[in-house]
C-alpha cells in the first residue's frame, strides 16, 4: 500500500500539517516576512547560488537570482535562494578542481536536507557548472541550469583579446622579448573589462554550451553575454519553466539521458570545446547512472568537424558567437546532418529538434557551415599505449598539425617545481623535437589535477621562434590554452602509472591518427623500473586525505568513488 504522504509535494513534508515540527519549519521562515500562503503546497524552488566575491566570474549572480525569483513567482511557485561553495578558477590554490567534488557534496546534501521541490542552478566559472550538476544529479529533483554568461570581448590597443588565451600568448611574448612588461600590465585591465566568465571557448563557455546541448538549460543559454539584458530575461523564463517541471514531475534523469550525453559530446567537438569537459561529463553521467566512457568521446567525436571559430582554436569570442546566432545554430547544423538525437527532451518541454528548428545564422565565418569547417576532425582524441594504458586525451584542433605524428627524446620534470627550476636552466638539453614530460600533476599527485599541462616552452627556444612542442602529462590544461599537449594520462604518475617511469632521453612516439602514445623501451626495462618505483606519501589528515584515498582517475571522471550514483530525494527523518 502506498503511504498517503507520498502523494504530497516533497516540501509539504516540512510545510504542510499542524505538528510541532511543521510549526518550527514555518514559524522561523515567517521571520523573513513571508505570507502564510507561501506554505500552501505551491512548488518550493531552490535557487542554488554560487555567487562569491572570490569568484569574479559569478559576480552578477545575486541580480540573476532575483530574476529567477520573479519567474518562479509569476508561475505560482515559492522561490528560496541559498548559497553553496563557490569555486573560482583564478584564485583557488592548488587548483579549483581539488574542490569540485567537495562542492558537489555541498549541493547534494543541501538539496536533500531542505524542503525543495525543484532547483535552479546558477553556475558560471569553470567548476561551478559540473559541481552543481553532479550534486543535483545525485538527488534527481526537477532541475534547470542558468549560466552566468561570458564577459564582453577583451580589447587591447584595438585588437580583440581573449580570456586566458592571450595570457598564454602575452607571457610567451614577454619571455621571447617581443612585449614589454608595462604593455603586459596594461593588457590585464583590457582583457577582463566586464562581469562574466571567460569569453573564449574555455571550460566555462564549453560547459555553458554543453548544459544547453544536454537540454538542462534553455536555448541560447551558452552565449548571451553576462551583462546583456537578454541574460536576465532568460533567467526569468527559467524561473517559470522550473515551476512547470515540478508540476509535471519531470526529473533531471528524464533530461540527462544517454542520448543527451551523446548530443553533448558531439556538440563539444563542433564548438572546439575544452578538454576539461571530458572529465566533467564522465563525472555527471556517473552521478546520473548513465553509462559513459572515454571511448564514447573518441567514437562520437572522431568524424566531428569544429565549426565554431572561437579562441583558443579560432579567432572570435563568445560575444561574436551570440551575435552570429549562438548554439542553436550549431545544433541545427548538426541535426540537419544527422549528427544529433533530435528527439531528446529539454527543460522547456520541447525537444532539441523543436528548439532549434528556427535557428538562423548571421555570420558564417563565426559559425561555419559543416562543409567549410575550421578543423575537419575537431573531436577530442583518446590515445592509448604503454604510456597511458587507461587513456590520455589531446585536442587536435588546438595542436600543431605537423606535431600530431612525432617521435622525440623525453625531457622529464618530476613535478611542477622541478619544471619551474629546470626550464630556466640555460644548459638544459632540449630542442624543438624534444618531448616535454611532466609527472605528478594528476588527481592525487598535485593534488587536484591542476591546469599545468600546457607548460611553457623554454625561453631559449621561444627566442629562436619555436611556437609549439609535444608535451605530455597527467595534468589538465585550461580550456583557453592551446598547443600539442597530451593530457589526463591515466593512470597518473602518483598512482604508479607508467608515466612515473619515464626517464630523460627515453624515446616517445605520439601518433594521433593511430590514437597511439608509446614509450619506446622494452617491457623488461619497464618492469625493472616499476619494481624500483616508490609511491609518494599520502596527506596526513583533512579533506585532502579523504580526497587522496577516494579520488578516481581522469578516465573515470575524477569523482570520489563513494559519490558515484544517484541517491534520490527521499525526505529525511524529522529534526526535532
Ligand atoms: Fe572563471 Fe574563466 S576564470 S570562467
Ligand atoms: Mg580554467
**How many H/I helices?**
20
CATH superfamily of the largest domain: Response regulator
According to DSSP, the number of beta strands is: 14
The CATH architecture assignment of the largest domain turns out to be 3-Layer(aba) Sandwich
As laid out across the biggest beta sheet, the strand order is: 12-11-10-9-13-14
Estimated helix fraction:
25-40%
Radius of gyration: 24 Å
Instruction: Give the end-to-end Cα distance, rounded to a whole number of Å.
Output: 28 Å
Structural class call reads alpha/beta
Described by strand count, sense and barrel closure, the largest sheet is:
6 strands, mixed
**Which ligands, by name, code or SMILES, are bound?**
FE2/S2 (inorganic) cluster, magnesium ion
Mean pLDDT: 96
The CATH class of the largest domain is identified as Alpha Beta
Proportion of residues in extended strands? 5-15%
CA-based shape: globular
Family: Belongs to the IlvD/Edd family.
Pfam families: ILV_EDD_C, ILVD_EDD_N
Domain Dihydroxy-acid/6-phosphogluconate dehydratase C-terminal: 365-558
GO molecular function: hydro-lyase activity; iron-sulfur cluster binding; metal ion binding
